[in-house]
Specification:
The protein has 267 residues and is an alpha/beta fold. It has two domains: 2-95 and 171-264, Rossmann fold (3-Layer(aba) Sandwich); 106-170, no CATH class. Helices cover 34% and strands 25% of the residues. The protein has helices at 2-9, 64-72, 111-116, 126-139, 155-167, 185-202, 213-219, 250-264, and strands spanning 20-33, 36-49, 53-57, 79-84, 87-88, 96-99, 173-177, 205-209, 222-226, 233-238. The chain has a six-stranded mixed beta sheet, with helices on both faces. The two termini are 36 Å apart. 35% of the residues are buried.
Length: 267
């Protein structure tokens, strides 16, 4: 076991740390309610490189989902900078895919039609769109379910469709807001492994918000631990282990405990 652990510790992730795909600088976010100001995010500074998998954890209300929404461009009321490829984010666009805890599939559309919706604003031909949809259905293991409707799918299958829809535009970044939070433990574990496989295959930058510490360290190259409100980055835990990872790894267990200890003292 010691030899295996030492071998894992010698592995370095193949990421170009000289190029920041996403840069967040001096980010502050407040809400105004009942003539009072509530600060949600305070002084967030973070650089994310091309191809990284970033996990963000923190207690409820620390602002981690708000941070994801700002990166997605769903909210433009903030102070500071959010730069994608050195360009300020000005709203939503096809360069950032977003997956929520709920799959948000339209019930009157088939699986294929739900994924096609994400391609409506592209310049692709109909044939190219069909090929792209077919490719991504195969990627998430749903080939043969093209004509199924959401009510005919399990929760895990529906979330696979959501992942395919989030990736079909080939975005620079895939943002995941508790994507497996509503699933049972077995389905969740299986989809974590599948997401790891897709990330390795696509080499796309992914940012995951989660309450699940095991999930965060299992998937993430870095785990961003946020303090309680107002949300600040309390700690960044490097997880320099190769993928695919094994959930029973002793090193992974140690990183989990490190993250838990940070959260216990994050107030």
């Amino acid at each position: 076991m010691k030899a295996e652990i030492n071998a894992e510790m010698d592995i370095l992730l193949d990421i170009d740390m000289s190029f920041s795909l996403l840069s967040i600088k001096k980010l502050n976010k407040s809400f105004y309610r009942d003539q009072q100001t509530f600060t949600v995010l305070d002084g967030i500074h973070l650089d994310i490189q091309q191809g990284e998998f970033i996990s963000i954890v923190g207690s409820s209300g620390c602002g981690k989902s708000t941070l994801l929404r700002l990166i997605a461009g769903l909210d433009k009321d903030y102070q500071g900078e959010i730069l994608l490829n050195q360009t300020p984010i000005q709203g939503t666009d096809l360069k950032r895919g977003l997956i929520f805890q709920e799959h948000r599939l339209l019930p009157w559309l088939s699986v294929s039609e739900n994924i096609h919706l994400a391609l409506e604003e592209t310049d692709l031909s109909r044939a190219e769109k069909n090929a792209r949809v077919a490719e991504h259905l195969t990627m998430v293991g749903l080939k043969g379910f093209e004509n199924a409707y959401p009510h005919e799918l399990s929760g895990g299958m529906a979330q696979r469709v959501a992942i395919a829809r989030g990736l079909v535009n080939q975005p620079d970044i895939l943002l995941l807001d508790e994507p497996f939070g509503a699933l049972d433990a077995i389905t969740r574990s299986h989809l974590q492994t599948e997401l790891q496989r897709i990330w390795q295959d696509q080499k796309i930058t992914m940012i995951l918000v989660t309450h699940d510490i095991e999930e965060a360290v299992y998937l993430g190259d870095r785990v961003i631990v946020m303090s309680a409100r107002p949300g600040k980055i309390k700690e960044i835990i490097q997880v320099p282990l190769t993928h695919p990872r094994h959930k029973d790894s002793e090193l992974l267990f140690n990183y989990r405990n490190q993250a838990l200890n940070m959260l216990d003292h994050s107030a």
